[in-house]
Each structure stands twice: as C-alpha cells, then as structure tokens.
Design goal:
Layout lengths: L3 E10 L7 E10 L2 E7 L8 E4 L4 E4 L1 E3 L11 H8 L9 H10 L2 H17 L2 E4 L1 E2 L6 H12 L5 E6 L10 H9 L1 H6 L5 E6 L6 H13 L3 E6 L7 H7 L4 E4 L5 H9 L3 E4 L1 H7 L6 H6 L4 E3 L13 H11 L4 H15 L16 E4 L6 H4 L6 E6 L2 E2 L2
Parallel strand pairs: 1-4, 1-5, 6-7, 8-9, 9-10, 10-11, 11-12, 12-13, 13-14
Antiparallel strand pairs: 1-2, 2-3, 5-15, 15-16, 16-17
Bound molecules: zinc ion.
C-alpha cells in the first residue's frame, strides 16, 4: 500500500503523553500504521499527500460498549417514557422476541448500517455484545454475526433471564455457564453480566465471570446502573477490564476502582434516553480512576451511534472538561478493551484517525449536535 501524508493539520490532538497537542502538524500513514508524527515542515516525502486545510485531527474514537445485534425498535416505549406514561409491554423481551425471529441476513444488515453510522461519527473500534438471543443457538449466531464486524465481541447471555426461565432462574444460570458458554466462547473475546438487583446478584455474576475465565474470556460487568449494588466492587475483585455505567457509586466503589486495573466506563446516552441522573465523572477523575466513554448503542435505552453526542453529554452533565471527555472516548476506550495499539496518535499505532471541521476537539462539546466529523481513517484507509 502506498504511504500517505496527512498534512495541513491545524491542531493534532494526539492524546499521547509524549506528543501532546501539535499545531501545524503532519502524520504519515504506511500500510495500516502511523509511521511518523511531527511538524508539517519536517514531514518526509511519501507517495501521496492529503491536505486537511487547517482541520483538527484526533485519534479515532474507541466505543467499548455497544449492543448492535438486534431486530426491531422500541420507539413506542421511548415515547411513553418521555411522555411520563408507564409502559408495561415488553422492554428487553420485545427485542429478544424480534431478534430470535429475525434471519441472519436481516441482523447482519442492521449491524452493517449501525457500524457505518459509528464510523461516520468517528468511531474506528467498536465492541459488540450479544444478549438479545438468550438461547444457545441465538446467542451463538449473534456473536458470529458480531465477529464479522469486530474482534471485540462480548458474550452477554447474562443480560436478563428470558421469560421461559422466569420460574427457574437458576436453570438459566446453569445454561449461561454451561452449554451456552461452550457454544459462544469460540466467537467471543469477552464475557459480560448485568449485575443488578432482581437480575443477576453478586454470586450469580461471579459464577458467570469465573465460568468465562475457564474459556479464556476477559470480564466486563454492567454495574451500579439503576441503584447502588455490588457490581463495581465485584468487577474490581475479579479483575474485569471494565465496570460499565457506574451511575450509583459509594466511596468504597470509587476506592476500589482507583486501586484496581478496572476502567469505569460511563454511558451517558443511557441516562439521556431514560431521563435519569448521570454518573459523577468528576468524582472518579479526581480519585484517579481511568474513565472511558461509550455509546451503549441499543434499541431500548441508548439508541445512539454518536460519540460526539456522548462527549457533549459528558461535558454538560457529568462534570468532565472537553479535553477529559475526548481522552475518555479514545485512550479510555482503548484501556477498557485492554488495547495498546489504538486510542492515541503515535508512530507504531494503528492508523485510526479522524479530522474535524473545527479548530480543536473542544468544538465537539461546544457545538453539540453539529456534524463536525469531516474525514475518518480506519486501519490506514479513509472510510468516511
Ligand atoms: Zn449495555
């Protein structure tokens, strides 16, 4: 593949401790990697040249939490919630029924559409969870579909107890940790569990994570979303890569995150879409916790594929500075996936970058709702 220099970069916000913010910069891409970073005037001669006309460039966003394999939509439920009416029909079960009934082609087509939206919003790495199949066959096929789009696939059989097991949830737990896991593990890198009162308690969540360990799957936990609970401390105790949501935290939860290798992944699209209280990112950052931002894209509680929208919410509603929010959407996301090849612009990293039609990344929060992403490179290829 010919080498290419991206030049005319008004501000290169590398997110790298070594390179920092570089004005008047250029980046050389060779094959799928970043080969050189520095002042435009010193850029080496290469095959091709793209002049970005003074735009700002930053690393591609890393979305470490999404649920993209599903069928149907839940706009009626959203409308009811926003109208203050109670809505009793369905919830996740609606999506589970629609997903089970959908063919592979329809599910795959929808993932393709959603990942195209993500790339257009600057996301160059996406994690995708199962969790709307909840049978051995449906979880396995959802993960196989996800694996066509990303290596960051997560088995979430422990999303909810499906209606057919409501009388015997312990039998469903056995299935998740047994036959379903055996069928899903070959297609997954991670295992996740929804640890919440009335869904999977601490003992059940621990059993799920331990079962995943036996197949070499790394742990992730949906933790402390709806109320205080044991999820965050369990994630830290089990060495999970990430505790996700972290909306209702105690001082002990924050201490546990600060001293563990577990990233706190915040999903403000969920609080926005359910009109709930946001997590306090300021408290986490001040305690030294590594924070990631992700979309949580799913049809029930956060149907967004836009990382710029999540950044704007993080700044407006969660006490983050624009710089911190961008860092959480890049470096933080990479940490939540335990990846060292993405999230910053440095020689040797994967060539995942985006150009903004703006002078600095601050504009992502300063100009909310405006489509500022003006070019996206993934693995060295321009994809949007
Ligand atoms: Zn989720």
């Amino acid at each position: 593949m010919p080498s290419v220099v991206l030049t005319g970069i008004g501000l290169l916000a590398t997110q790298s401790a070594e390179y920092g913010d570089l004005p008047g910069a250029a980046v050389v891409i060779q094959d799928s990697e970043i080969a050189w970073v520095g002042p435009a005037a010193a850029a080496p001669a290469v095959d091709d040249r793209v002049d970005l006309g003074g735009r700002c460039v930053l690393p591609g966003f890393v979305d470490s939490h999404s649920h993209l394999v599903f069928a149907g939509d839940r706009s009626e439920e959203f409308t009811a919630r926003m109208s203050g009416r109670s809505y009793t029909a369905g919830g996740i079960a609606t999506t589970v029924a629609a997903t089970r009934a959908a063919g592979d082609e329809a599910l795959t087509g929808r993932v393709a559409e959603l990942t195209a939206e993500m790339r257009a919003s600057g996301i160059t790495t996406y994690e995708i969870k199962s969790g709307y199949g909840l049978t051995v066959n449906d979880e396995s096929r959802c993960l196989q579909i996800a694996a066509r789009f990303t290596s960051e696939t997560t088995y979430l059989g422990a999303h909810v107890v499906p209606p057919e097991y409501s009388h015997a949830p312990e039998d469903y737990l056995d299935l998740i940790c047994g036959e379903m896991l055996a069928a899903c593990a070959p297609h997954a890198r991670w295992i996740d569990v929804f640890c919440e009162q009335g869904v999977f308690d601490a003992d059940a969540a621990r059993a799920v994570l331990l079962a995943g360990t036996r197949y070499g799957l790394g742990g992730r936990v949906h933790a402390n979303q709806l109320r205080p609970g044991p999820g965050v401390q369990l994630a830290c105790e089990m060495g999970a890569a990430s505790a996700d949501h972290c909306t209702h935290l105690s001082a002990a939860d924050i201490d546990a995150l600060a001293s563990a290798d577990t990233v706190a992944t915040l999903l403000p699209g969920a609080e926005f879409s359910t009109r709930s209280d946001y997590p306090d990112a300021r408290q986490l950052l001040d305690a030294g916790v590594t924070v990631a931002l992700a979309t949580d894209c799913n049809p029930g509680t956060s149907y967004t594929t836009s990382m710029p929208f999540c950044i704007a919410l993080a700044v407006r509603e969660m006490g983050m500075t624009p710089t911190e929010a961008v860092h959480a959407a890049t470096v933080g996301g990479a940490a939540a996936l335990r990846r060292t090849d993405i999230g910053v612009i440095e020689p040797g990293r994967r060539a995942d970058l985006l150009a903004l039609n703006a002078p600095s990344p601050v504009h992502l929060a300063y100009r909310p709702g405006v489509g500022l992403v003006g070019g996206v490179w993934q693995n060295g290829l321009q994809v949007a």
